[in-house]
TrEMBL record:
Organism: Aquirhabdus parva
Cell wall biogenesis/degradation recorded as keyword: no
Protein name: DUF1211 domain-containing protein
Keyword NAD in annotation: no
Intracellular or extracellular location(s): Membrane
Family matches, as PANTHER family: ENDOSOMAL/LYSOSOMAL POTASSIUM CHANNEL TMEM175, ENDOSOMAL_LYSOSOMAL PROTON CHANNEL TMEM175
Membrane topology: Multi-pass membrane protein
Domain of life: Bacteria
Cellular component per GO, a single term: membrane
Residue ranges of the TM segments: 6-23, 35-55, 75-95, 107-127, 147-180
Gene Ontology molecular functions: potassium channel activity; proton channel activity
Length: 190
């Protein structure tokens, strides 16, 4: 089976995730700029989560261009990734509603860590199914960015109980690391 249905389904789920996040932002009561002040944590958590979901969508899109066919293992690994991504709106809303406090920020880090693990698992399964395709294996490489990301999330979870802003800074740093599409895949595709 080719990747068209998998990509279309994934794109649809990701679009719904973003829609759910934006619908959680409530309109302020009041017409002044001061009325926006209580929404600042909500807006900040939304922007960070939107960037994260966009990063996963972008990298998933590039990665799927390398995949020639899919089987049940790949479909389930992709669903595993989509499951963790689908929890981002919940954690985003919880962070915003509780003004960036420890437990919601730690949960957010746990969900981001599981997204990173799920993406790595998907990549490894795709490589195993494609028989160590040299192009695919070269595109993934040793995945240092993925390893650094998971370590940052793992560090950010307990740090949320010291100071949630340290964890947020780590999440932002990882997002910056991944902001541009993964060049390994683009080089192989070119």
């Amino acid at each position: 089976m080719n990747t068209n249905r998998l990509e279309a389904f994934s794109d649809g789920v990701i679009a719904i995730i973003i829609t759910i996040m934006v619908l959680e932002i409530k309109v302020p009561h009041g017409e002044t700029l001061e009325a926006l002040a209580p929404l600042i944590p909500v807006l900040l958590s939304y922007v960070l989560s939107f960037i994260y979901v966009g990063i996963y969508w972008n990298n998933h899109h590039h990665f799927m261009h390398m995949v020639h066919n899919v089987n049940g293992k790949i479909l389930w690994a992709n669903l595993h990734l989509l499951f963790w991504l689908s929890l981002i709106p919940f954690a985003t809303g919880w962070i915003g509603e509780n003004h960036i406090s420890a437990v919601p920020v730690a949960l957010y880090g746990f969900i981001l860590m599981m997204c990173g693990i799920a993406y790595t698992l998907l990549a490894r399964i795709v490589i195993s199914v494609h028989g160590q395709d040299p192009k695919l294996a070269a595109a993934i490489g040793r995945d240092y960015k993925g390893i650094v990301s998971v370590i940052a999330y793992l560090s950010a979870i307990p740090l949320a109980f010291v100071n949630p802003w340290i964890s947020i800074a780590l999440y932002v740093a990882v997002a910056i690391l991944w902001f541009l599409p993964d060049r390994r895949i683009e080089r192989v595709l070119d």
